[in-house]
Amino acid sequence: MYCFSYYSRAVDPHIKDAYLNKQVRSVNVESVKKLFLGQVKGNAKHIYEDFIKKRTPLHWGGLSDPFCPFEKEHRIGLELLKFFDSIDYPIIFSTKGSVMLEPEYFEIFKRKPQNYFFQISITSIDEKSTALIEPNVPSAHRRLETMKALHDVGCTVSLRLRPYIIGHSNKNIEELIKLASEAGAVSVSCEFMCLEMRATPALHSRYYEISKAIGFDIWNYYRNLQPKGKGGYGRLNPFVKEKYALEVYELAHKYGMLVAFSDPDFCELNDTSCCCGVPETLKNFENFKRGQFKRAIMLAKKNDFVYWKQIEPDWGKNIKRGDVDINKGDYENFQKQKNLTAYTLIKNTWNDPNNPHSPYKYFNGKLKPAGLDEEKNIIYEYVKSYYEVKYP
Questions:
Q1: Is 315 helix (H, G, I), strand (E, B) or coil?
Q2: Phi and psi of 160, rounded to 5°?
Q3: What CATH number should be reported for the domain holding residue 71?
Q4: Are residues 299 and 231 in the same domain?
Q5: How crowded is residue 319: how many other Cβ atoms within 10 Å of its Cβ?
Q6: For the sheet containing 58-60, what is the strand order?
Q7: What is residue 389's three-state secondary structure?
């Protein structure tokens, strides 16, 4: 009911009709193979070439579950898995599925388990509310069994507690984290549910079903408790989330797991700068991108200040905004930015505290401008929260 992909696609005027009518298309397998073998030209080559050469881990499952019923029927992902196995490429999966336990898939994971990191998505161990909020997927306990099976053959596994839904995820939260630890999870990745505030009637019908499951009107709850000036993607006020976030932090450490908040709030508590919960030194996954703001706040917490040079991206200087056909935003802004490189856009965001995506705004004041370095880039100072007396 909360699917991020549904929220983004169901309001996009260019694709919503096809999406809502379940006109599903699969990726072109041969195009992906050519991309990873360096056999393409044009935008695709210069956008992805550097990532592939550096063996930056591929994240598979950001918008569609790689082990969903569509995969069970068509086996497109299996074909790709065989290819990635042949080139020995590291992959991070995000999934609720169990298709990967079928012999054809499982044999691949058993052969080179060091190449596979699984985020198993479980939002609650309460099967009653889970069945209402997450229909047509394996039960929470079945997903824990999948987690353990993958761990037992050597794959690295993590609990993906995303989204954390108040009224649902906090039910028996210790039991969930304890069971995930017993199943071999090395980390908990957590983000609180966000609501698409530009909701269509179809979205409102989903919010209604979630509300029934949790016992209160989630739409009004978010509308009344989200910070002002944050746009149409509604996040809860950090003070509302605080006690739940700190409980996750305490329990994860109690059961020997790392914490990775992908929420902009509380990520100063993270044990890794990878919001997927990948440990910093996990073999074959060391090359995840560290030139990002989550790492900035962790460095600032450690050193009191953080500098642009410390998190400067090692990519994006040859990728222009106009090269990437996603998230174009409004026409006027896109025209202004289309010839700027990704590197320049990130740097400009760093140096504009009024930008809603700047470290200052994104982290709700946890990083504040404190001066300029010798190259006129903003130096950010860390602002400690009161709860850090207990959670240093």
A1: coil
A2: -100, 90
A3: 3.20.20
A4: no
A5: 19
A6: 58-60, 91-95, 116-121, 156-164, 185-192, 258-261
A7: helix
pLDDT over 80 (residue 261): yes
Q: Is the peptide bond before 57 cis (omega within 30 degrees of 0)?
A: no
Identify whether the C-beta of residue 116 lies closer than 8 Å to the C-beta of residue 93.
Answer: yes
Mean pLDDT across 217-237: 84
Element (H, E) at 210: helix 201-214
Average pLDDT over residues 258-263: 95
Identify the pLDDT of residue 327. 61
- pLDDT at residue 127 greater than cutoff 80: yes
The range of the structural domain enclosing residue 307 comes to 295-389
Report the C-alpha gap between 279 and 260 in whole angstroms: 9
User: Total structural domains in the chain?
Assistant: 2
**Does residue 302 sit within a domain?**
yes
Residue 274 lies in a domain: no
Asked whether residue 20 falls in the same domain as residue 146, the answer is yes
Look up residue 47 and give its amino acid: I
In a domain, 37, yes or no: yes
Does this model's pTM top 0.70? My answer is yes
* Same domain, yes or no: 314 and 205: no
Contact at 8 Å (CB) between 190 and 259? yes
Sign of the CA dihedral running 124, 153, 77, 191 = positive
Answer whether residue 122 shows pLDDT above 60.
yes
The answer to whether the CB of 74 falls within 8 A of the CB of 26 is yes
Residues 68-94 pLDDT 10s: 988 999 999 999 999 999 999 999 999
- Among 45-49, 85-89, 100-104, 340-344, the range scoring the smallest mean pLDDT is 45-49
Residue type, 314: D
